[in-house]
Amino acid sequence: MKRREALVAMAAPLLVGFQPAAAQPTVARGILAHFLDLIIPADDVTPSASALGVHTELEDAVRSHALLSQLFDYGLSWLDQAGGRSFLSLSPETQQAILVHAAQADFNQIPGRFFAVARLLATEIYFSKSEAIAGLPLNKAPQPDGYLPPWS
Amino acid sequence: MELSRTPDVVVIGSGAGGASVAWGLVSQGAEVLLLEAGPRFDPSVDYPQDRPDWERRAFPQKPGSRTRVLYGDLGILNADDRDLMRWSKVAGRDVPVLGSARVASGGGYSHVMGVGGSTLHFVGEAHRLHPDAFRLHSLTDAGVDWPMSYQALEPYYSKIEHAIGMAGTDAGPGRAQSRDFPMPAHPLSPGARVLAEAGRKIGRPWSVNPRAVNSRVYDERPACNYCGQCSRGCPLGDKASMDVSLLRRAMDSGRLTIVSEAQVTRLLLGKQGVISAVEVVSQGQKHRVETPQVVLAAGAVNSPRLLLASANAEQPDGIANGSGQVGRNFMETLWWNSAGLLPGLRNSHMGLPADATDWGMAHPASVPGLAGGYKLTHTTLDTGLNGPIGYAARLLPGFGAEWKAQMRARFGSAVSVGAVGQVIADERSKVSLDPEQVDAFGMALPRIDSVLTDNSLALLREMARGCREVLSRAGVEIAEETSNWDAFQSTHVFGTARMGLDSAEAVVDGQGRSFDHPNLWIADASVFPSSGAGEAPSLTIMALAARTADAILAG
Ligand SMILES: Cc1cc2nc3c(=O)[nH]c(=O)nc-3n(C[C@H](O)[C@H](O)[C@H](O)COP(=O)(O)OP(=O)(O)OC[C@H]3O[C@@H](n4cnc5c(N)ncnc54)[C@H](O)[C@@H]3O)c2cc1C
Ligand code: SF4
């Protein structure tokens, strides 16, 4: 099974028959880049997720599959409502608290599954860019140089 | 046109078995036509190791490089066995509905269709079976014995080891060698050193794992540069996948013709039980290739599929199936993997994958009260803990600035141990034809039923214990455990056209010749009567196939 098929398989069982009343997909889409930057922020060594275009690639990947797309619609809607008002208008501390909640939430509920899938996809796209591996003892790619000994 | 000539032998499939039998035949003067259903791989295009997104790319991706396989009964997940459930610090426990069916995941039957077969994907562990593995039934009362001894196969092991190029110290306890390996061992990677030290402390020694990977220039191929990517296809050609080793050598003889993207769809029966021709589809055209001898080496799923799909009025149960054993006795890979982080360890993503092993239990009667044994291997690199995506997805949960700092601080400290164990063939486990679904050529799709028995489950528990013991002695904080308990995912498959002494119980004799058809031979993993106690199978497949080549030429 390829990675994306695995993600779809993660999304599928939860979404069959799931119809939250309050899903507002189009409103929620705008917060994706910000949400991903909370997962992968910039620091002294490497750029943020959005600076490497992770949100655009992730959106493309998600949009190409109905079930994933649905998971993201519901997940982002939940995110935008979880603090009582729009996610982007919340204080950084509240946004952080919502992410902590999602990260620890039951995988069999929308917030938990959405966070896990978004994080998995985002880190996968992010670390496939050479700018993202600065600070790690890695070549840009395993070949052509390999890793000749000594290794310690 | 290659398909209009009548060669001395037609070989079907170019993996470990097909390549070895073809090489054995052409080196002794025979003209061979090798028909391979999959495509040719071009390392510069088809292997991803020189691209920044290498870690995202699954292997193989080339169109036509996988057979579509269906799955039937894979067993039921019982609550009593939930201790065997996969988990990770990142994903938690994705608790399956207990009492639900086990499903196939991660590709299910993991294989490659292509020139070189599944050896394009293989890591290159190259093991001799323990001499006692040939006497499974005599020693344990389970399964069956092989129709040959270790001693009978030893000259072929040695011949193949020198042809493909082996690096290591020795073949392992009890596995007497008539010749040393041609190359010195590879240096042990940082993760392997940790396990060797921990193993010494608990009295379970680790040693260099015999590897079909060049540690120096050999066979006109370069030395490994330790990119750590063997199971994504080796771009340097130092790993002895069949395309760069035995098939290249065989091509040099001028007597081997390989036709890729040529799927054999039927074996055609002539007079007196002889296979007169094979039917093959190449470039959209159906051809009939006449041949005096046929070697079937399509792997333990596709070989029985072809035999069953060749049923005719005279042989309604399929070709070579007088015993009723074609497709039966299917054995999957029993496997467990524990992985975690060792504070302070650096660069465990560097080195040769699967470079060290603990042979201690790799004997069919090693676990009291159970049939079958297992082998432990250092698996940090070959299970994908050699890139940041692997760490983020499996070992290091969290997000934000603190998590990024953790990724940098802890990358290179993963250590992973895998156990591969013996499966005893069971009545319910088999490859059969789907009654409805067919492929693009109208051939019925293969369907796998594979059930874990009580013996397998108990052995799996022992394997988990073995992995955890060495990791915890090393001080590794275990962060992920996976196994084939809750998902069928199998790199080694065996048994579906087994060899034996008795035509009522086996499909082929000890030389690989069909009991029913004098000019039909089988030379792949389907002939294994038992799986061995965790040893990787390819070297034994190649040795058996080289022996079959000699038998064909002997008449
Ligand atoms: C990820 C991975 C890692 C592995 N690591 C190791 C390892 O380290 N050491 C080891 O010993 N083993 C390893 N293995 C297992 C090893 O690769 C296989 O056991 C071995 O290649 C099986 O050899 P075979 O000849 O039976 O079949 P294969 O190598 O699978 O070859 C069968 C060939 O037949 C072709 N074929 C099928 N049907 C037809 C048809 N109808 N007409 C024409 N051609 C057909 C297929 O396309 C294929 O090329 C690994 C496997 C995988 C997937
Ligand atoms: S580690 Fe060595 S054998 Fe494996 S793919 Fe890299 S160069 Fe080839």
Structure, explained:
- The complex is a heterodimer of chains A (152) and B (555).
- With 152 residues, chain A is an all-alpha fold.
- Chain A has a domain of 102 residues.
- Chain A is 54% helix and 0% strand.
- In chain A, helix 4 packs across helix 7 and helix 5 crosses helix 7.
- The longest helix of chain A has 17 residues.
- About 11% of the residues of chain A have low confidence.
- With 555 residues, chain B is of the alpha/beta class.
- Chain B has a 7-stranded antiparallel beta sheet with strand order 4-18-12-15-14-13-6, with helices on both faces. A 5-stranded parallel beta sheet of chain B has the order 7-2-1-11-20.
- The longest helix of chain B is centred in the C-terminal third of the chain and has 21 residues.
- The interface between A and B is large, with 44 and 48 residues.
- The site of iron/sulfur cluster has 13 residues of chain B, from loops.
Low-pLDDT segments, ≥5 res of chain A: 12-27
Dominant shape of chain A: elongated
**Most extensive interface:** A-B, 44 and 48 residues
Strand order of the largest sheet of chain B: 4-18-12-15-14-13-6
Q: Helices and strands of chain A, in N-to-C order? A: HHHHHHH
Q: What is the count of DSSP helices of chain A, taking H or I runs of 4+ residues?
A: 7
DSSP helical segment count of chain B = 11
| Domain module count of chain B | 1
Q: Which runs of chain B of at least 5 residues are low in confidence (pLDDT < 50)? A: none
Average pLDDT level of chain A:
86
| Structural class by sheet pairing and helices of chain A | mainly alpha
Strand count, sense and barrel status of the largest sheet of chain B are: 7 strands, antiparallel
User: Total number of β-strand segments of chain A?
Assistant: 0
Largest sheet of chain A: none
Quaternary status of these chains?
A: heterodimer
CATH class of chain B: Alpha Beta
What is the beta-strand fraction of chain B?
Answer: 15-25%
